[in-house]
Amino acid sequence: MGSLFRSEEMALCQLFLQSEAAYACVSELGELGLVQFRDLNPDVNAFQRKFVNEVRRCDEMERKLRYLEKEIKKDGIPMLDTGESPEAPQPREMIDLEATFEKLENELREVNQNAEALKRNFLELTELKHILRKTQVFFDESVPTVYKSSGATYSSSKYRRYPQMADNQNEDEQAQLLGEEGVRASQPGQNLKLGFVAGVILRERLPAFERMLWRACRGNVFLRQAMIETPLEDPTNGDQVHKSVFIIFFQGDQLKTRVKKICEGFRATLYPCPEAPADRREMAMGVMTRIEDLNTVLGQTQDHRHRVLVAAAKNLKNWFVKVRKIKAIYHTLNLFNLDVTQKCLIAECWVPLLDIETIQLALRRGTERSGSSVPPILNRMQTFENPPTYNRTNKFTKAFQALIDAYGVASYREMNPAPYTIITFPFLFAVMFGDLGHGAIMALFGLWMIRKEKGLAAQKTDNEIWNIFFGGRYIIFLMGVFSMYTGLIYNDIFSKSLNVFGSHWHMSYNKSTVMENKFLQLNPKVDYEGSPYPFGMDPIWQVANANKIIFHNAYKMKISIILGVIHMIFGVIMSWHNHTYFRNRISMLYEFIPQLVFLLLLFFYMVLLMFIKWIKFAATNAKPYSEACAPSILITFIDMVLFNKPKPPPQDCEVYMFWGQHFIQVLFVLVAVGCIPVMLLAKPLLIMQARKQANVQPIAGATSDAETGGVSNGGSHGGGGGHEEEEELSEIFIHQSIHTIEYVLGSVSHTASYLRLWALSLAHAQLAEVLWTMVLSIGLKQEGWVGGIVLTCVFAFWAILTVGILVLMEGLSAFLHTLRLHWVEFQSKFYKGQGYAFQPFSFDAIIENGAAGADAE
């Protein structure tokens, strides 16, 4: 079989490269992305490897580029992304790149430092401007005259509305602002000059600042404050902060020292403020002049910084790609070994067998680029190690392969379920989601993503939900198309039916009965014309409120079991392909055949009974093949397994559906039960006998690597084997017992598990009908221009609920149930998933992961 159905054949190769050609050759292999290198120095510390200095240099260049990127994003400058991937630079070009990055970083840091210093100076001048402006208002008021009133000292009666430093409830206990000497000196008609400090503080610290001043100075200070209306820019981080101007009056050097310490503790900035009005005006004029000059210099600095960043933004993406490629090459070279002459590098790598010639051509190109005269040598090695699993994918099959790999990476050369999942996954989803309208919405959404995939992929958003939708665009499109097909089979579009071919039933009721009777039933003896509707369900079932759901339930339940049994049988047949490919004769005879016989004789026989019942029994037939004589398939199956005697049938009806049914059922059950000990004991006993005959040596091809661990995994079919230590016989018996019990019980539970197809289909149809009946029909019943407005609003609400609940939520539910049916019910029959993925050295993957990591940061 081709690589679509099995993973690629892999080969372990040894690669010899000349030291001067190694960089160019690895660069070519990175562009190719088909080689997975092994670490030949697992015990060597990362800091002791040969090319650790080059890796450190690349890390330093990446740090500088991240700094440039941060500054560019801060200014909102768009970065040019051509989508092209430049080649990895030569080693000698690293010096030029380092010099360029060093120059840019130093220039940008210097500009930033200058800009920060200018902004800090600008902030100080702006705060001083506000202080001079606000304190002028304070000084323009009357000079404070100190007087004593009921134990509390205030400066002038007009300040009574600012009792920041007084406690109105305990005025008698408050200390006086000037003390006894000050009071004696401040007799009526005498003015007392007070000291003051002025500054700026963060607005949120002001209440605590006032309380501290009051407690520390015992109320002997007077505080005035005013808010600065416009926020100021913090020069350190560029944040906008709100501040307030304050002025504190006090008397004496001791209080002055205390006030300054409190201001320092609250990180308030103090500024000199002259006492004379003329000096204040002169200082304000000087401050305004300096602010204007600073604005000019700041604008020039910002322009220069912007020009530097714009120039860097044009090349930043390419620089990132180049540096990451250099770093990846040297990191890969650290996995190599040096020969004794220190002139040749030796590597070991896994390569796909079909691509060896392509890899050799790439190595030849790398040698020519480096100017080396010694060609590289690529030798294929023999190994017993299990090779990695490599399934080639394209943009269509990638999403389906991801569903399989999420369960477990396939063992080497094991049958790959992905090609079959391309059909079975959207089909089983559609059985649960079958609705022509909802399927069309989903298909159109998937088709839109497919048509616009180049533009959407170039946007590279970090929205995880959108990336999941976009990655599965082909799955969504197929699920929508298959849902439209099953919607036609169910004749269901937004819970209504299409009457394309005309109903093949005739109504024996009048119009009023059909429209008003909620318990209307269809009688196939009278109403059915004898020929079925050409495609799908007959639309007449829309009016049969009483037995519509009964008919649909019976149909969908049986279809679910039929599809489930066929799906499981197909899974068991897939295991036959694995056994024949790996030449595992024992598993073929004593696992595959008993499993298939067990499944066919019990569950496929039940499916045949359903078809026999559909063919032989009908409402228009006379007894013993009328609908009254039709037996229950479930009861028949239970009686068959338990060897129960069937219950007496109704009058003129037969016990069995066909001649010899009882004998065949007993025979089938006995043979199926007889398959259980064969599955349980035959394989371990044969392995034990073979080991005894071979003097306890494992026999190639006797068992799979899961049981004995000593089988050649693929023999001549692959580039590696599964040669491991022999497994104990007791473990083989235990493993086989678990496997047999799981299969026998799982056959029953898995068959019942497929009933989720019926349950979710029923739930989806009923939810659609509820939305139509409870929401949209309300708008359709309105008349006149008011009805048009009501219908528009109701339709919008119905459309939102339809997309949000029936398409998104129900779609997600059906998707998860379909995923479970494939992982558990289908893949458990043949798929081990015990391999490890092929992870080639690829520049594309490295750059994509690096870009994703940068976006996450």
From TrEMBL:
Which family does this protein fall into?
A: Belongs to the V-ATPase 116 kDa subunit family.
| Example GO biological process | vacuolar acidification
Q: Which gene encodes it?
A: Vha100-1
Q: What is this protein called?
A: V-type proton ATPase subunit a
Q: State its location(s).
A: Membrane
Q: Which GO terms describe its molecular function?
A: ATPase binding; proton-transporting ATPase activity, rotational mechanism
Organism for this UniProt entry = Drosophila kikkawai
Q: Where are the transmembrane segments?
A: 422-450, 470-490, 559-577, 592-612, 663-682, 757-779, 785-809
What sections of the sequence does the record tag as coiled-coil?
51-128
